[in-house]
Amino acid sequence: MSAPRLEIDLDKLQHNARTLVDRLAGLGISVTGVMKSTLGSPEVACALLRAGVSGLADSRIENIETLRRGHVTASMTLIRSPMLSQAERVVAHADVSFNTELDVLRKLSSVAAATGKTHGVVLMVELGDLREGILPGDLAETVRATLRLPNLALKGIGANLACRSGVAPSSENMGELSELVDSIEAAFGLELGTVSGGNSANLTWALSGESTGRINDLRLGEAIVLGRQPLTRSPIEGLYTDAITLHAEVIEAKRKPSVPWGELAQAAFGEPPPVTDRGHVWQTILALGRQDVDVEGLHAPAGIEVLASSSDHLVLDPGSQRLAIGAEVTFQLDYGALVRAMTSPFVTQVLRDPSGRASLAGHDGEPTAGRGKGPAGGPTASPLAG
255, 368 in Cβ contact below 8 A? Predict the structure, then answer.
């Protein structure tokens, strides 16, 4: 099978999504499945919908269009503020968009009116992470202006934390969001259906036992696809951390000194990495590089160490192992590495369904063996959900 490749286990993704949907349901919180790390894969979308997510979301209208072409009919939300230049596409393909700018809202209203549609909007509030959001003191005026715009339906209020500055969701900032929702509803005599508290970083707060207030929706992507809690990147109990893995092929394996010789200058990507003299090692090179993946986000198997990388080569010290030419090394990834690999034209995407059958994304393939390791703190066998 072609390498490098991402193997996407639909069964494990469905299990992860189902587990989180069930845990949050008892708190009155629904899950919106975020698709951006899988480039709008219809197969992944269907797995999440089978798991019970209430709808799908993406930061790019192109991925939502991909889902529509794949005949996915679920409610879809654009969670990055729309570009004015894409307003027509947003109204045509997204049911709801997250917004912070009145100029954009006016444009969406105009397009919706011209096409005879009603477009849903969620207004995003700034709660300290200093990415997108309306300052709390300006929210009421923005709501007032939005309600005056024809063919727009104000669906709710949302917030985002932990993405730019690492501000963690807490009882204080989530409580502020709940209070803002209460005040807007009282001031304008309306009922907001969606209070979107944030992303996968909200899970620790949401499941802590504290009151979740008015928050009734979380947008989950990283927790589903990687089984990890973004604030610490620690595994989430009961979830698979290897639902998506990266496989790369050995193209050279030679015994070499561990210390370079000659006059040293800049390497391909700036300063070369620090070197530890470990004598001669069985240096191994994979056909994988920075053009394919964020190398710092790779988690190598036990006993293997990533030494260096360039555009097209990943240099390893395999320790006591001897890796043959043509052998493969399997990596787990963090979110940054996954997004980079998913968008590389040189990395193949292979889907594995619950029967164990594997295929190229959108194509028929051949069966593959092996189910990987079990969820953190859970069974070894891959459970079927739904």
Answer: no
Q: In this predicted structure, what is the pLDDT of residue 1? A: 83
pTM for the structure as a whole: 0.91
User: What tokens appear for 68 in the block?
Assistant: 């529509």
DSSP state of 230: T
Cα distances from 170 to residues 131, 139, 188, 210, 221, in angstroms, run 17, 21, 27, 9, 20
Structure-block tokens of residue 314: 């990943």
pLDDT along the chain (386 residues), means of 10: 95 98 98 96 97 98 98 98 98 98 98 98 98 98 98 98 97 98 98 98 97 98 97 96 98 95 89 88 96 97 95 96 96 96 96 82 41 43 29
How far apart, in whole angstroms, are the C-alpha atoms of residue 129 and residue 267? 35
A 10 A CB-CB count for 311 gives 10
Residue 88 corresponds to which tokens in the numbers above? 């027509």
The residue with tokens 């499941």 is 207
Question: What is the chain's length?
Answer: 386
Q: Are 212 and 206 in contact (CB under 8 A)?
A: yes
Pair type for strands 194-196 and 5-9 = unpaired
Name the residue among 322, 324, 323, 341 with its Cα closest to residue 332.
341
Helices (H), 2-84: 10-25, 42-51, 61-69
Which residues belong to the active site?
36
**Could you tell me which residues are beta bridge partners of residue 352?**
9, 358
Distance CA 151, CA 119 (A): 6
Give the start-to-end residue ranges of the domains of the chain: 10-227, 244-346
The Cα–Cα gap between 274 and 6 comes to 29
- The alpha carbon of 312 is separated from its chain's Cα centroid by a whole number of angstroms, namely 25
Place of tokens 């001897």: 322
Given a contact cutoff of 8 angstroms between Cβ atoms, the answer to whether 54 and 156 are in contact is no
Sign for the CA dihedral angle at 182, 183, 184, 187 comes to positive
**Domain 10-227, CATH:** 3.20.20.10
Burial of 63 (0-12, 13-18, 19+ CB in 10 A): buried
Contacts of 270 (CB under 8 A, 6+ apart): none
Provide φ and ψ at 4, rounded to 5°: -70, 155
Task: Report the amino acid identity of residue 268.
Answer: A
Quote the CA–CA distance of 180 and 157 in Å, as a whole number: 9
